[in-house]
Amino acid sequence: MPQRLLAKQVTPRSSERAAGRAFLGISALLFAASAALTLAWSRAAPGMHGLAMSGGGSMMWTPMPGRTWLGTATSFTGMWSVMMVAMMLPSLAPMLWRYRLILDAAGTRHPGWLSALAGLAYFFLWAALGVIVFTLGALFKTAQMHAPALAQWAPAASGLIVLAAGALQFGAWKARHLACCRPAAYRARAGTAVPSARAAVRHGLRLGRHCILCCAGLTTCLLAVGVMDVRAMTLVGIGITAERLLPGGTSAARVVGAATISAGLLLIARATGLG
Q1: Is 95 strand, coil or helix?
Q2: Among 41, 48, 60, 68, which is least packed by CB within 10 angstroms?
Q3: What is the Cα–Cα distance from 15 to 100, expressed in whole angstroms?
Q4: Where, by residue number, does the polypeptide cross the bilayer (predicted)?
């Protein structure tokens, strides 16, 4: 009898450890693949700059000869989606793992598949945002081509955008959405642990919505400075991960905000010839 009881206690724990190793391995592979693709794209297209950059941003925001608007938008959305996997997965993975544990505790037969479905819904929302970003970028680039003065003011506008994004890090709005994106503060809401595909999709979309709103300032910084700038992507990705995973998320967000404000002031100084 004691041996049977011991087997019942050990098997779930060993199964959970195996599931944890598989989850970590898959997450690491996804991150490595998306990071490698993003790096390859950034090296292959050095002229793909951000919204507020003057000059050679046409490779990203307008069709090249022989390409259509649909093809250009599709290419950008695919690149954007892969980039977001590389940037967001380190902070999303702990959330998905906790969701899987909740499903497992609820007796779900396939918690891994449902947590993967939640992750797909999360990144689907980021891909949809990529379509909006491309539309705005194309409109902005068209305006630059028709108004050369707008292009001249673009570097200073970039600094102002970064400055405003840094100030946003100190607000209650940021803190509220950040609390929904931190694994330490994660709580299953009503219906979250329902073992169904529909509930998993809803959960992933809810996580994506909070994440997009929480990252609005830092994402805008990335667009302003350079969408395919590896240094900007790395710094923004580190900032997002730090404020979500480190103890004291609000304090980490404020440190990121202070650094962002400093970067904005430096950009403005360079654009106006003061730095």
Answers
A1: helix
A2: 68
A3: 13
A4: 68-92, 113-140, 152-173, 211-240, 252-269
Give the whole-angstrom CA distance, residue 256 versus residue 114. 33
- Measured from the Cβ of residue 172, the count of other Cβ atoms closer than 10 Å reads 8
Six-digit token string for 119:
């992750």
First and final C-alpha spacing in the chain: 77
Dist CA 230 CA 128 (whole Å):
22
Q: Kindly report, residue by residue over 168-213, the tens digit of the pLDDT.
A: 999 998 999 998 888 866 654 434 566 788 989 999 999 999 999 9
Token pair, residue 238, equals: 């580190």
Side-chain half-sphere CA neighbours of 188 within 13 A: 19
Nearest to 177 by CA among 50, 77, 91: 91
- Determine the structural domain holding residue 255 and report its residue range: 2-271
Beta carbons within 10 angstroms of residue 141's beta carbon: 18
Q: How far apart are CA 155 and CA 49, in angstroms?
A: 12
Q: Quick: pLDDT tens for 239-249.
A: 999 999 998 88
**d(C-alpha 16, C-alpha 5), whole Å:** 18
Tokens 């499903």 belong to residue: 103
Residues with Cβ within 8 Å of residue 67, at least 6 apart in sequence: none
Q: Which helix (H) or strand (E) holds 252?
A: helix 249-271
DSSP assigned state of 184: G
* CA count, 13 A, side-chain hemisphere, 233: 22
The low-confidence residues of the chain, meaning pLDDT below 70, are 1-13, 45-59, 184-194, 275
Dig out the tokens for 177 from the structure. Answer: 């959405």
156: Cβ contacts below 8 Å, ≥ 6 apart: 267, 268, 271, 272
By the 8 A CB rule, do 204 and 119 touch?
yes
